[in-house]
Amino acid sequence: FGYESLFKEYLNGTVTEVWIEDPYIRHTHQLYNFLRFCEMLIKNPCKVKTIHLLTSLDEGCGRVQQSSGLEEIKQSLRNHGVLLEIEYSSSVHDREIRCVYNNTLIFM
Q1: Residue 6 domain-assigned?
Q2: Helix (H), strand (E) at residue 15
Q3: Where is the MITD1 C-terminal phospholipase D-like domain positioned along the sequence (predicted)?
């Protein structure tokens, strides 16, 4: 299964914002999966303009890789007219995706 098959029914032309909480967007494969999810949002008919990411900061030697990887994704999204807002928290521990449909928040 790909992201499209999992999320297609939730993504339509009225989605304007997506909020993602995932404490583990740190390593290369996690950054790649996040990028693939963002690409799926851009390819779908939804009108996502802002993606909010809440994650934890890598406490080890991977901090530079994490921040540079997220900055690359941020720039790529900006080139497609999408704003990526990144926030770090040491207390985030669950994964969650929320979408805003016509100013109404929906949990997925």
Answers
A1: no
A2: strand 15-21
A3: 2-99
Position 8 in a domain: no
Domain assignment present for residue 108? The answer is no
- DSSP assignment of 65-94 equals HHHHHHHHHHHHHHHTT-EEEEEE-SS--S
- Chain mean position to CA 63: 18
Q: Which two tokens stand for residue 82?
A: 């999408």
Q: Identify residue 15 by its one-letter amino acid code.
A: V
Residue 42 amino acid letter: I
Kindly report, residue by residue over 63-104, the tens digit of the pLDDT: 999 999 999 999 999 999 999 999 999 999 899 998 887 666
Q: Is the pTM of this model over 0.70?
A: yes
Q: For residue 10, give the DSSP letter.
A: G
- Cβ neighbours of 50 (radius 10 Å): 14
